[in-house]
Amino acid sequence: MKISTNSRTDLFVHISLVVALVVALFLGFFFLYLPFTTNHGQSITVPDLTGMSTQQLEDYLEERNLRYEVVDCTFVVGQKPLTVIRQNPKSGLRVKEDRKIYVYITALTAPNVKMPQLEDRTLNSAKAELGRLGLRLGEIKYVPDPAQNSVMAQLFNGKRITPGTLIPQGSIIVLEVGDGIGNTEFDVPDVVGKTLEEADFVLKASSLKRGLVMPVEDPTKAPGTVIRQNPEAGAGNKIHVGEVIDLWVVGGQPDTQPEQQNE
Known about the structure:
Mean pLDDT: 85
Oligomer: single chain
Strand order of the largest sheet: 7-11-8-9
Shape: rod-shaped
Helix content: 10-25%
CATH topology of the largest domain: Trypsin Inhibitor V, Chain A
Distance between the termini: 105 Å
Protein backbone atom coordinates (compact mmCIF):
# COMPACT_ATOMS: atom_id res chain seq x y z
CA MET A 1 0.00 0.00 0.00
CA LYS A 2 1.37 3.35 -1.02
CA ILE A 3 0.75 6.30 1.24
CA SER A 4 1.24 9.70 -0.31
CA THR A 5 2.00 12.67 1.87
CA ASN A 6 2.00 16.26 0.78
CA SER A 7 3.29 17.63 4.00
CA ARG A 8 4.92 16.66 7.28
CA THR A 9 1.53 16.93 8.98
CA ASP A 10 0.05 14.35 6.62
CA LEU A 11 2.93 12.00 7.51
CA PHE A 12 2.27 12.30 11.25
CA VAL A 13 -1.43 11.68 10.70
CA HIS A 14 -0.77 8.53 8.72
CA ILE A 15 1.73 7.24 11.26
CA SER A 16 -0.78 7.88 14.06
CA LEU A 17 -3.46 5.94 12.20
CA VAL A 18 -1.15 2.95 11.72
CA VAL A 19 -0.12 2.96 15.41
CA ALA A 20 -3.76 3.22 16.49
CA LEU A 21 -4.67 0.28 14.26
CA VAL A 22 -1.86 -1.88 15.71
CA VAL A 23 -2.87 -0.99 19.28
CA ALA A 24 -6.52 -1.79 18.52
CA LEU A 25 -5.58 -5.16 17.08
CA PHE A 26 -3.35 -5.90 20.09
CA LEU A 27 -6.04 -5.00 22.61
CA GLY A 28 -8.71 -6.83 20.69
CA PHE A 29 -6.64 -10.02 20.61
CA PHE A 30 -5.82 -10.09 24.33
CA PHE A 31 -9.03 -8.68 25.78
CA LEU A 32 -11.68 -9.95 23.35
CA TYR A 33 -10.57 -12.89 21.20
CA LEU A 34 -8.34 -14.69 23.72
CA PRO A 35 -10.78 -14.53 26.68
CA PHE A 36 -13.61 -15.67 24.43
CA THR A 37 -11.74 -18.72 23.11
CA THR A 38 -10.26 -19.79 26.49
CA ASN A 39 -13.23 -18.93 28.73
CA HIS A 40 -10.86 -16.66 30.63
CA GLY A 41 -12.37 -15.50 33.93
CA GLN A 42 -15.15 -18.11 33.75
CA SER A 43 -14.48 -20.66 36.51
CA ILE A 44 -16.63 -23.08 38.49
CA THR A 45 -16.40 -24.15 42.13
CA VAL A 46 -15.95 -27.92 42.38
CA PRO A 47 -18.92 -29.37 44.31
CA ASP A 48 -18.63 -32.02 47.03
CA LEU A 49 -19.53 -35.34 45.41
CA THR A 50 -18.93 -37.53 48.48
CA GLY A 51 -21.77 -39.98 49.07
CA MET A 52 -23.36 -39.28 45.68
CA SER A 53 -24.31 -42.28 43.55
CA THR A 54 -23.04 -42.77 40.01
CA GLN A 55 -26.63 -42.43 38.79
CA GLN A 56 -26.76 -38.89 40.14
CA LEU A 57 -23.29 -37.81 39.02
CA GLU A 58 -23.79 -37.38 35.28
CA ASP A 59 -26.84 -35.08 35.38
CA TYR A 60 -25.54 -33.21 38.42
CA LEU A 61 -22.18 -32.38 36.82
CA GLU A 62 -23.61 -31.74 33.37
CA GLU A 63 -25.77 -28.97 34.84
CA ARG A 64 -22.56 -27.38 36.14
CA ASN A 65 -20.60 -27.84 32.86
CA LEU A 66 -18.36 -30.48 34.42
CA ARG A 67 -17.58 -34.13 33.63
CA TYR A 68 -16.43 -37.13 35.66
CA GLU A 69 -14.37 -40.30 35.29
CA VAL A 70 -14.26 -43.30 37.67
CA VAL A 71 -10.63 -43.97 38.65
CA ASP A 72 -10.99 -46.85 41.09
CA CYS A 73 -13.64 -49.05 42.70
CA THR A 74 -13.08 -50.30 46.26
CA PHE A 75 -15.28 -52.10 48.77
CA VAL A 76 -15.78 -50.11 51.98
CA VAL A 77 -17.51 -51.65 55.00
CA GLY A 78 -20.69 -49.78 55.90
CA GLN A 79 -20.80 -47.68 52.70
CA LYS A 80 -23.53 -47.90 50.06
CA PRO A 81 -22.30 -49.51 46.82
CA LEU A 82 -21.48 -47.33 43.79
CA THR A 83 -21.17 -44.11 45.78
CA VAL A 84 -18.33 -41.59 45.74
CA ILE A 85 -15.82 -41.88 48.59
CA ARG A 86 -13.09 -39.57 47.20
CA GLN A 87 -12.61 -37.08 44.38
CA ASN A 88 -9.90 -35.10 42.60
CA PRO A 89 -9.89 -32.07 42.42
CA LYS A 90 -11.26 -31.62 45.94
CA SER A 91 -14.46 -29.73 46.58
CA GLY A 92 -14.17 -25.97 46.92
CA LEU A 93 -11.44 -25.53 44.29
CA ARG A 94 -12.05 -23.34 41.23
CA VAL A 95 -11.74 -24.98 37.79
CA LYS A 96 -12.62 -24.11 34.20
CA GLU A 97 -15.76 -25.27 32.46
CA ASP A 98 -15.82 -28.81 31.06
CA ARG A 99 -13.17 -29.90 33.59
CA LYS A 100 -13.13 -33.65 34.33
CA ILE A 101 -13.55 -34.69 37.99
CA TYR A 102 -11.88 -37.99 38.88
CA VAL A 103 -13.88 -40.02 41.41
CA TYR A 104 -13.28 -43.12 43.55
CA ILE A 105 -16.39 -45.18 44.26
CA THR A 106 -17.42 -48.14 46.41
CA ALA A 107 -17.70 -51.59 44.85
CA LEU A 108 -21.08 -53.16 44.13
CA THR A 109 -20.25 -56.50 45.78
CA ALA A 110 -18.01 -57.40 48.71
CA PRO A 111 -15.00 -59.66 48.13
CA ASN A 112 -14.79 -62.90 50.09
CA VAL A 113 -12.30 -63.35 52.93
CA LYS A 114 -11.34 -66.42 54.95
CA MET A 115 -12.78 -66.64 58.44
CA PRO A 116 -9.84 -66.49 60.87
CA GLN A 117 -9.26 -68.72 63.91
CA LEU A 118 -10.38 -66.56 66.83
CA GLU A 119 -11.13 -69.23 69.42
CA ASP A 120 -8.61 -69.38 72.29
CA ARG A 121 -7.44 -65.86 71.45
CA THR A 122 -8.00 -62.84 73.68
CA LEU A 123 -10.93 -60.56 72.94
CA ASN A 124 -8.62 -57.66 72.01
CA SER A 125 -6.65 -59.88 69.63
CA ALA A 126 -9.88 -61.10 68.01
CA LYS A 127 -11.13 -57.53 67.54
CA ALA A 128 -7.88 -56.52 65.84
CA GLU A 129 -7.99 -59.52 63.50
CA LEU A 130 -11.61 -58.84 62.49
CA GLY A 131 -10.76 -55.21 61.75
CA ARG A 132 -7.74 -56.21 59.68
CA LEU A 133 -9.87 -58.46 57.46
CA GLY A 134 -12.75 -56.00 57.12
CA LEU A 135 -15.14 -58.09 59.22
CA ARG A 136 -17.44 -56.50 61.79
CA LEU A 137 -17.75 -57.45 65.43
CA GLY A 138 -21.33 -58.07 66.47
CA GLU A 139 -22.61 -59.00 69.92
CA ILE A 140 -20.18 -60.18 72.59
CA LYS A 141 -21.82 -62.96 74.61
CA TYR A 142 -20.17 -63.68 77.95
CA VAL A 143 -20.32 -67.32 79.01
CA PRO A 144 -19.22 -69.03 82.24
CA ASP A 145 -15.55 -69.97 81.87
CA PRO A 146 -12.45 -69.35 83.97
CA ALA A 147 -10.54 -68.10 80.90
CA GLN A 148 -11.53 -64.47 81.26
CA ASN A 149 -11.80 -62.46 78.01
CA SER A 150 -10.80 -65.51 75.97
CA VAL A 151 -12.87 -66.32 72.86
CA MET A 152 -14.80 -69.56 73.38
CA ALA A 153 -16.73 -69.63 70.09
CA GLN A 154 -17.15 -67.64 66.85
CA LEU A 155 -20.59 -67.42 65.26
CA PHE A 156 -21.85 -66.27 61.84
CA ASN A 157 -25.60 -66.06 61.12
CA GLY A 158 -26.27 -67.76 64.45
CA LYS A 159 -24.08 -70.80 63.77
CA ARG A 160 -20.53 -71.71 64.68
CA ILE A 161 -18.23 -70.96 61.75
CA THR A 162 -15.11 -72.97 60.92
CA PRO A 163 -11.82 -71.11 60.34
CA GLY A 164 -11.01 -70.88 56.62
CA THR A 165 -14.66 -70.59 55.53
CA LEU A 166 -15.14 -67.93 52.84
CA ILE A 167 -17.54 -65.16 53.85
CA PRO A 168 -18.23 -61.67 52.39
CA GLN A 169 -16.11 -58.85 53.72
CA GLY A 170 -18.17 -56.74 56.09
CA SER A 171 -19.96 -59.76 57.60
CA ILE A 172 -20.93 -59.58 61.29
CA ILE A 173 -19.25 -62.06 63.64
CA VAL A 174 -20.64 -62.80 67.11
CA LEU A 175 -18.18 -63.93 69.78
CA GLU A 176 -18.73 -65.98 72.91
CA VAL A 177 -16.20 -64.89 75.52
CA GLY A 178 -15.28 -66.32 78.92
CA ASP A 179 -16.34 -64.14 81.87
CA GLY A 180 -13.59 -65.31 84.23
CA ILE A 181 -15.66 -66.82 87.00
CA GLY A 182 -19.01 -67.39 85.42
CA ASN A 183 -22.53 -67.03 86.69
CA THR A 184 -23.32 -70.71 87.12
CA GLU A 185 -23.41 -72.16 90.65
CA PHE A 186 -23.00 -75.83 91.47
CA ASP A 187 -22.32 -78.03 94.49
CA VAL A 188 -18.82 -77.92 95.92
CA PRO A 189 -17.07 -81.15 94.86
CA ASP A 190 -15.73 -83.43 97.61
CA VAL A 191 -12.00 -84.18 97.31
CA VAL A 192 -11.39 -85.20 100.93
CA GLY A 193 -9.77 -88.65 101.06
CA LYS A 194 -8.29 -88.32 97.59
CA THR A 195 -4.65 -87.85 96.73
CA LEU A 196 -3.50 -84.37 95.75
CA GLU A 197 -3.16 -85.53 92.13
CA GLU A 198 -6.70 -86.93 92.14
CA ALA A 199 -8.01 -83.74 93.74
CA ASP A 200 -6.36 -81.61 91.04
CA PHE A 201 -8.04 -83.75 88.37
CA VAL A 202 -11.48 -83.27 89.96
CA LEU A 203 -11.01 -79.52 90.38
CA LYS A 204 -9.89 -79.01 86.78
CA ALA A 205 -12.75 -81.13 85.48
CA SER A 206 -15.11 -78.81 87.39
CA SER A 207 -13.36 -75.66 86.04
CA LEU A 208 -12.13 -74.81 89.54
CA LYS A 209 -8.68 -73.77 90.74
CA ARG A 210 -6.60 -75.28 93.48
CA GLY A 211 -5.83 -72.67 96.11
CA LEU A 212 -3.25 -72.94 98.87
CA VAL A 213 -1.96 -76.35 99.99
CA MET A 214 -1.35 -76.58 103.76
CA PRO A 215 0.74 -79.55 105.03
CA VAL A 216 -0.59 -81.43 108.07
CA GLU A 217 0.49 -84.44 110.11
CA ASP A 218 -1.84 -87.43 110.40
CA PRO A 219 -0.24 -90.85 111.02
CA THR A 220 -3.53 -92.57 110.17
CA LYS A 221 -3.51 -91.28 106.57
CA ALA A 222 -1.11 -91.97 103.70
CA PRO A 223 1.17 -89.10 102.72
CA GLY A 224 -0.32 -86.92 100.01
CA THR A 225 -3.92 -87.53 101.14
CA VAL A 226 -6.34 -84.59 101.30
CA ILE A 227 -7.97 -84.52 104.76
CA ARG A 228 -9.69 -81.13 104.61
CA GLN A 229 -10.86 -78.56 102.07
CA ASN A 230 -12.25 -75.05 102.12
CA PRO A 231 -14.99 -74.45 101.14
CA GLU A 232 -16.32 -77.75 102.39
CA ALA A 233 -18.47 -80.09 100.32
CA GLY A 234 -22.05 -80.90 101.26
CA ALA A 235 -24.51 -78.97 103.43
CA GLY A 236 -25.80 -77.22 100.31
CA ASN A 237 -22.55 -75.31 99.79
CA LYS A 238 -22.30 -73.76 96.28
CA ILE A 239 -19.37 -72.54 94.23
CA HIS A 240 -18.91 -70.63 90.95
CA VAL A 241 -16.87 -71.66 87.93
CA GLY A 242 -13.29 -70.43 88.27
CA GLU A 243 -13.25 -70.12 92.07
CA VAL A 244 -10.57 -71.73 94.27
CA ILE A 245 -10.54 -74.48 96.89
CA ASP A 246 -7.80 -74.62 99.55
CA LEU A 247 -6.54 -78.06 100.55
CA TRP A 248 -4.95 -79.60 103.67
CA VAL A 249 -2.67 -82.47 102.65
CA VAL A 250 -0.87 -85.05 104.81
CA GLY A 251 2.88 -84.43 104.56
CA GLY A 252 2.41 -82.09 101.66
CA GLN A 253 4.73 -79.24 100.73
CA PRO A 254 3.19 -75.83 101.45
CA ASP A 255 2.19 -73.67 98.45
CA THR A 256 2.71 -69.95 98.98
CA GLN A 257 0.64 -69.11 95.89
CA PRO A 258 -2.61 -70.60 94.62
CA GLU A 259 -2.48 -72.65 91.42
CA GLN A 260 -2.77 -70.48 88.28
CA GLN A 261 -4.68 -71.66 85.25
CA ASN A 262 -3.91 -70.43 81.77
CA GLU A 263 -6.31 -67.79 80.55
